[in-house]
Amino acid sequence: MFYAISACLAGENCKYSGGNNRNEAIVSLCESRPCVLICPERTGGLKTPRAPAEIIGGTGEDVLAGQAKVMDSEGRDRTEAFMKGALLSLAQVWEAAGDETEICAVLKAKSPSCGSGLIYDGTFSGTKIPGNGVTAALFKREGIRVLTEEEFVPPVD
C-alpha cells in the first residue's frame, strides 16, 4: 500500500494559519511505510499563512465541474489555485507511487482541498455539510481511496 498524506498532518507548517495539524499516528505511518506528502493549496501557488477558504455554492465535485467556486474569507476567488493544486497533487501521487496499484490518501478533515465526506459550507460560520474538498473529490474520481485523519486506523504489520 502506498500512502498520500496531507503534509500538515505530518507536521509541516503549511496550514492556512501557518501552523500544522500534526498527528502522531500519521507521523509514524510516514516513518514506516512508503508515502508522499502533499499540500494542494501550497502546490497550487497559495502562500502560508493565507486567508482561510471555503467552497461557495457546492462541493469539490462541483468545483471540478465548474459549477462552484473556492473563495477566501477576504473575498478573493481561489478556485484556480485549488484546481491547479489538486491536479498537480494527483500527478505527484501517481509519480511517487510508481508501480504501486494500491493507493490510500489520508487527508485533512473538513478542508476545502482535502476534506472527505464533510466540508465547511462556504459561509465561514463553522457550519459543515456533506461533501468533499477539491483534491479529495479528484482523488476519489481517479480511484484513490481517501480517508481523513479521523477515520485513519494505522496498519498492523
Model description:
The protein has a four-stranded parallel beta sheet, sandwiched between helices. The chain has a two-stranded antiparallel ribbon with strand order 3-4. The radius of gyration is 14 Å and the shape is globular. Helix content is 29%, strand content 20%. Helix 4 crosses helix 5. The protein is built from five helices and eight strands; from the N terminus they run E-H-E-H-E-H-E-H-E-E-E-H-E. By secondary structure, the protein is α/β, with parallel strands linked by helices. The chain has one domain. Strand 6 and strand 7 form a beta hairpin.
Task: Describe the structure concisely for a colleague.
By secondary structure, the protein is an alpha/beta fold.
The secondary-structure class comes to alpha/beta
Q: How far is the N terminus from the C terminus?
A: 12 Å
- Beta-strand segment tally: 8
Q: What does the main sheet amount to?
A: 4 strands, parallel
Percentage beta strand? 15-25%
